[in-house]
Specification:
The chain is of the alpha+beta class. It is built from 16 helices and 38 strands.
Length: 606
């Protein structure tokens, strides 16, 4: 028994000695490693290149040199016997060598020293190949190949149905254009081969394979649909509408849209999207528009350049076709065209810093029938307001923004009636600016701190109750910016339409404004005839139309995101006003003295 025990202790002793030796070796290696620059252990490679005993800088240099050497001769594809060079090749492929070198340095360097020793020992018998992440710009390569493909290969063609309608004979004719197969480049196989070459750093001309593509819609499928054509044509005529415009779809137009369409149930008779789109693009050319980002550039706190973003309006063809078919199903003869809207904002750091990114309110008015100088003053006033910046919590003064209303300010004279004479005064038309600004402030939900209505109703500012008169130095129109962001005002004139847009950041507030209610009507007095020396004797010129007096009011409320609601009622009192006509005389009579009056009641020619 002692003999057996003696024999069994020898292997155990050898094992213990070996373990001790390995431990000492691991300790020596670890200690040595901690005192020397970190290098990649022997047996590690990537892209077929050994990285034995290289530090980080050396490994990066070796890999980058090998990649550059492999790519210096270019990257070529062979297509149908023709050679196509992919360039610039360094922009088409990227190797993430930094990451793979960092991974290589970590191999055998965990917190467990025994595990590190085993990993290093295994590398001696079984080297490790790390995968380098490779990014290939497949989209750019495919774009190049598509350019070649379009000119060299025939795309597959689906069978097509063509229907024409003769309105004179009330008959139709249908023809079927047969299909034919196509040939295309095999992108999937090509990219797989390119990636395999890139992983080995062995680039050689690669032959791009082609694939045959069979059409999904065949002539035999369309021929079975011909008996259904009369039922479809019976839906015409009908009307399409978009933004208050209408277009009549005749039987001839509908016939041109008919074609076979592919569906999960097979090939069915339907409306060809491309044909419908072509027709509607022509009909809606004044409605559809591309979107465009805006730009804001300030200089010394003032507007230098502003390009308003343009929201895009597109045509949703599939939805329009669905609307048409739904309309038929419900017996409707009027169908809405489906439009898609793209809403863009203002780009740039200055716009971002001030929160000027989107339209938060719009005011509009119309000045049809205005004389020349009034139009000039409206244009000048709009120009002076355009680009106005309102800081958070700032009270905006319209008169302060417009400046002094005189000749030096660039204003033009407009006639008012004062004591038998037509007397020109500067600034006729400014109330158009005041009214439009007031309406924009209301639409934005801003607290209006000062507003005066006109003395009597003026056609330029209907509906009554939504006007605001201004005059230098008073009355003024003022409001406060309580949005927490800057507000910028932009103005535009299109024909007789004036629009003021407030730009800022929407904070979730909602505005409810009722229609103005009129009451206490007072008929206008008799027409006044005023003698003037400025007209030929006997010549008449009416300068004022008759206006009925009335009171107007509308309810206004702003609901804020925190649940707070602020309500207000805007009142306006308008005096009755009779028509005023000038009569040319050679000499003024003694009884022709009439006090000066105008739409504001303060001799303001607006």
């Amino acid at each position: 028994m002692n003999f057996l025990s003696h024999r069994s202790t020898k292997p155990i002793g050898l094992i213990l000695v070996l373990i001790c030796a390995i431990s000492v070796a691991a300790l020596v290696l670890t200690t040595r490693e901690e005192t020397q620059p970190i290098k990649i252990f022997s047996g590690i490679s990537t892209l077929g290149i050994r990285l034995d005993h290289l530090n980080r800088e050396q490994a990066l240099r070796v890999l980058k040199t090998a990649i550059d050497d492999s790519l210096k001769h270019g990257w070529y594809l062979s297509i149908d016997g023709h050679s196509l060079e992919l360039k610039p090749v360094r922009k088409l492929i990227h190797y993430d060598v930094n990451t793979v070198v960092d991974q290589a340095l970590l191999v055998g360097r965990s917190e467990n020293r025994w595990k590190n020793l085993l990993v290093r020992g295994r590398l001696f018998f079984k080297p490790m190949n790390l995968t380098t992440a490779i990014t290939i710009d497949e989209a750019a390569i495919q774009e190049r190949l598509n350019t070649y493909q379009e000119g060299s290969f025939q795309a597959p063609k689906e069978a097509e149905l063509h229907v024409t309608f003769d309105p004179q004979k009330q008959t139709f004719e249908a023809t079927v254009e047969p299909e034919h197969p196509g040939l295309a480049l095999d992108f999937s196989t090509t990219f797989a081969a390119l990636r395999e070459q890139a992983s080995r750093l062995t680039f050689s001309p690669l032959t791009v394979q082609t694939i045959h593509i069979e059409p999904s819609r065949r002539a035999q499928d369309l021929n079975t649909l011909l008996p259904e054509i009369p039922v479809w044509l019976s839906h015409a005529p009908f009307v399409l509408t978009a933004e208050d415009q209408t277009w009549k779809v005749t039987t001839s137009t509908l016939a041109g849209w008919l074609d076979g369409v592919t569906s999960p149930q097979g090939t069915l008779l339907g409306l060809n999207e491309k044909r419908v789109e072509k027709t509607l693009q022509a009909w809606l050319k004044n409605i559809l528009k591309e979107s465009k980002n805006g730009e804001l550039i300030l200089e010394d706190g003032k507007l230098r350049t502003f390009v308003a973003p343009e929201d895009g309006v597109g045509l949703a063809v599939s939805s329009t076709i669905q609307n048409i078919q739904d309309g038929w199903a419900h017996g409707s003869s009027t169908v809405a065209v489906a439009l898609s809207h793209t809403i863009l904002t203002i780009e740039g750091e200055e716009a971002k810093a001030r929160g000027i990114r989107e339209i938060i309110g719009v005011g509009r008015s119309n000045f049809s029938g205005s004389p020349v100088n009034r139009r000039k003053n409206i244009a000048l006033g709009a120009d002076k307001v355009n680009g106005a910046l309102i800081a958070p919590d700032e009270e905006f003064s319209l008169m302060k923004t417009l400046g002094t209303i005189d000749e030096k300010g660039g204003w033009f004279k407009e006639l008012v009636i004062k004591e038998n004479k037509t007397v020109p005064e500067y600034g006729g038309g400014l109330c158009q600016i005041g009214t439009t600004t007031f309406r924009a402030a209301l639409a934005t939900g801003l607290p209006v701190t000062a507003r005066t209505n006109h003395a009597y109703r003026v056609p330029y500012y209907e509906p009554a109750g939504t006007d605001a008169t201004i005059y230098d130095p008073a009355p003024d129109l003022r409001f406060k910016n309580d949005t927490g962001h800057w507000i910028m005002i932009t103005t535009s004139i299109h024909g007789n339409d004036l629009a003021f847009r407030f730009w800022g950041t929407k904070d979730g507030r909602t505005i409810v404004q009722s229609e103005a209610k009129l009451s206490k009507f007072v008929p206008p007095p008799e027409k006044k005839i005023i003698e003037t020396l400025n007209l030929k004797p006997g010549e008449t010129k009416c300068t004022e139309k008759a206006h009925t007096g009335a009171d107007a009011r509308f309810d206004y409320a702003v609901a804020y995101p925190d649940g707070n609601i602020k309500k207000r009622v805007f009142y306006s009192h308008y005096k009755p006003w009779g028509a005023v006509c000038l009569l040319g005389v050679s000499k003024l009579s003694a009884s022709s003295t009439t006090p000066g009056v105008d739409e504001t009641g303060i001799n303001n020619p607006n």
